[in-house]
Amino acid sequence: MLTRTFLHLPSIGPQRERTLWDGGVSCWDDWLGQRDLFEEAPPDTFETLLGESRERLRLGDARWFEELLGPSHAWRLAADFDDGRTVYLDIETDGSRADEIPLDEDAPGGTTVVGTWDGREARVFLRGEDMRELPEYLCRYKVLCTFNGKSFDLPYLEGRFGKGFFPGAHLDLRPLTRVVGLTGGLKKIEEAIGLLRPEPIRRFTGYDAVKMWALYKTRGRMDALEGLARYNLADAVNLQAVMRAAYNAYIQQQNLPFRRFDSLQEPEMDAAVDEAIKCMHARLAARGAPGEAT
């Protein structure tokens, strides 16, 4: 996908990029292959940048491409990095502001639960337990994918960990879904593309997430915590399907010469969620958390 992209080059916009494709220059190699083997002149700006693009892609430097492509075209990162190098993330909060310090914390940010998914592994992080491990965990990834994360998830996490907590690229799906006609919140979009959540959490809302956290913290209700964790993980794992659906729709809409995703979801998703819940209980039990047998 990225090797067919020229929009990160200076003075090349969508129209000129399409002209290149129509003229037989469909990828970086086609452009670089036009240079005569015996030409002695130094590479021009485009050749130099395309050579650097090859190296940056080899290194997985998604942030470099994000900065050059800009917010309107950063979605082009999605296909190349949806191979275990993208982490899909969603947070839940206690209803407080991103700059407010909760009673049981020493830093601002009302985040209570963070769910992550990379296409193979799911994980839950809890405030007061292992939330502090989140930045180090995220550093293994090149792209952080959220839905409306620039307005919601990132301000909360930056309030807790600081603005540089994730050094890679950030892909917020909300602008892309809106462009292809998938409007509304995440749950509405899931329904539009045919996703169905498990029955026990199907009717949960963000307000329910606040209440479930309060039940866990004040009464030690592990059933509330598990419901909250499963609700949060459903948000995280479904982001991958939403990304793929929106990506495919945009390619079709714009008639772009890029390969589409064959499926929206990974077959091991449900098993990975169950394993994440099992590991959450094991970590709580090892630390002697309220409500867990030790």
How would you portray this structure in words?
The protein is of the alpha/beta class. The chain has 2 domains: 2-59, DNA polymerase, domain 1, CATH 1.10.150; 79-286, Ribonuclease H-like superfamily/Ribonuclease H (Nucleotidyltransferase, domain 5). It has 12 helices and 5 strands. A 5-stranded mixed beta sheet has the order 3-2-1-4-5. Helix 10 (206-219) packs antiparallel against helix 11. The chain is elongated.
Regions with little confidence, pLDDT below 50 for 5+ residues? none
- According to CATH, what is the class of the largest domain? Alpha Beta
Q: Please tally the helical runs, counting DSSP H or I stretches of 4 or more residues.
A: 12
Strand content: 5-15%
Helix residue percentage = 40-55%
Strand order of the largest sheet: 3-2-1-4-5
Distance between the termini: 50 Å
The structural domain count equals: 2
N-to-C SSE series? HHHHHEEEHEHEHHHHH
CATH topology of the largest domain: Nucleotidyltransferase, domain 5
Q: Which sheet architecture does the biggest sheet show? A: 5 strands, mixed
- CATH homologous superfamily of the largest domain, by name? Ribonuclease H-like superfamily/Ribonuclease H
**Count of strand segments:** 5
Backbone structural class: alpha/beta
